[in-house]
């Protein structure tokens, strides 16, 4: 693992966006001002009326400013 500034992130970098089970995000797009990343998420809601659990699985996409904020990078790939 290495520490990289947001302005130096590259396409397909796998970063730790926050602590927790779903805190790993992947860089999807890099432009002049922002880095776009996405991460999986799971939400469960215990539903009493059905005596079961409804699970919602999806992908959250968000933007990071390209600045000097540092991120842990788990994996870097060569994109040609």
Mean pLDDT: 86
Can you summarize the main beta sheet? Answer: 6 strands, antiparallel
How many angstroms separate the termini? 22 Å
Order of helical and strand elements: EEEEEE
Structural class: mainly beta
Summed up, the domain count is 1
Shape: elongated
**Strands in their spatial order, largest beta sheet:** 1-6-2-3-4-5
Helix share of residues? Answer: under 10%
Summed up, the helix count is 0
The counted number of beta strands is 6
- Over the alpha carbons, how many angstroms does the gyration radius reach? 16 Å
Oligomeric state, counting identical vs distinct chains:
single chain
Low-pLDDT runs of 5+ residues are none
User: DSSP strand (E) fraction?
Assistant: over 45%
Provide an overview of this structure.
With 80 residues, this protein is mainly beta. The protein has one domain. 0% of the residues lie in helices and 60% in strands. It has strands spanning 2-5, 14-16, 24-30, 34-47, 52-65, 70-75. The chain has a six-stranded antiparallel sheet with strand order 1-6-2-3-4-5, with no helix packed on it. 9% of the residues are buried. The model has no long low-confidence stretch (mean pLDDT 86).
């Amino acid at each position: 693992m290495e520490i990289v500034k947001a302005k130096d992130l590259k396409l397909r970098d796998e970063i730790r966006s926050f602590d927790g089970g779903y805190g790993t995000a992947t860089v999807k797009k890099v432009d002049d001002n922002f880095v776009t990343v996405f991460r999986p998420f799971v939400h469960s809601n215990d539903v009493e009326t059905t005596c079961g659990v409804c699970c919602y699985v999806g992908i959250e996409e968000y933007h990071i400013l390209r600045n000097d904020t540092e991120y842990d990078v788990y994996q870097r790939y060569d994109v040609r």
